[in-house]
Amino acid sequence: MSLLQIMPDHDPDRVLLRTQERTEITAALAPLGVTFDRWTLRSNDGGADTDVLAAYRDEVDLLRVNGGFRLVDVVRMAPDDEDPQWPATARAAREKFLDEHTHTEDEVRFFAQGAGCFYLHAGGKVYAMVCEAGDLLSVPANTRHWFDMGERPNFTAIRFFQEEDGWVGAFVADSIARRFPGLDQLRGATVA
Ligand SMILES: [Fe+2]
User: What is the mean pLDDT of residues 112-132?
Assistant: First the structure.
């Protein structure tokens, strides 16, 4: 299930809020300018990229127009234990976005399958948002954030861009990211 855990940015062990309630999540993220929404899951999420986009065409088209997104694509990671290269590929993919960075445009993702965790760093707090299938999340432009796909990356997400290089990040020199619990830790912990 989708999960939000908020911690002070100087104290990763202290949990200020941990919730799986959609209304609480939406309310807690709203002051940051974050959009958190849920789309009804469609059946053919495991298909080709074009199938995933076709399954959510109505929602995607609406968001494209409202958000001024010119480009939409599908990114996916799936464990392949038959492939000896997969662990290295997964590690490299995970590392890529595991340190704090910003973008000049909103980072908008819809999870059609699997899960991943966005960490937003704002107002002296870290907001760890575990997104699951059906979740749409926007990280506002210039907001410090990072993303953890866990030790066994497994997700299919639709990405929305205003510019072709919109995904390129400007990395923060004093990143605090590695001090905070990762996706696997967050999902493994019990909700109080
Ligand atoms: Fe990013």
Answer: 97
Distance (Å) from CA 160 to ligand 1 centroid: 12
CA angle 186, 189, 190 (to 5 degrees): 130
Report whether 121 contacts 148 (CB < 8 A). Answer: no
Cα 161 to ligand 1 centre (Å): 12
Of 103, 98, 186, 106, nearest to 149 (Cα)?
Answer: 98
How many C-beta neighbours within 10 Å does residue 66 have? Answer: 8
Chain position carrying tokens 């445009």: 105
Measure 102 CA to ligand 1 centroid, in angstroms: 6
| Model pLDDT for residues 158-173, shown as the tens digit of each residue | 999 988 777 778 999 8
How many angstroms does the Cα of residue 62 sit away from the middle of ligand 1? 23
CATH code for the domain defined by 3-188:
2.60.120.10
Can you give the chain as a three-state secondary structure string? Answer: CCEEEEEECCCCCCCCEEECCHHHHHHHHHHHCCCEEECCCCCCCCCCHHHHHHHCHHHHHHHHHHHCCCEEEEEEECCCCCCCCHHHHHHHHHHHCCCCEECCCCEEEEEEEEEEEEEEEECCEEEEEEEECCEEEEECCCCEEEEECCCCCCEEEEEEECCCCCCCCEECCCCCHHHCCCHHHHHHCCCC
Q: Which amino acid is at 3?
A: L
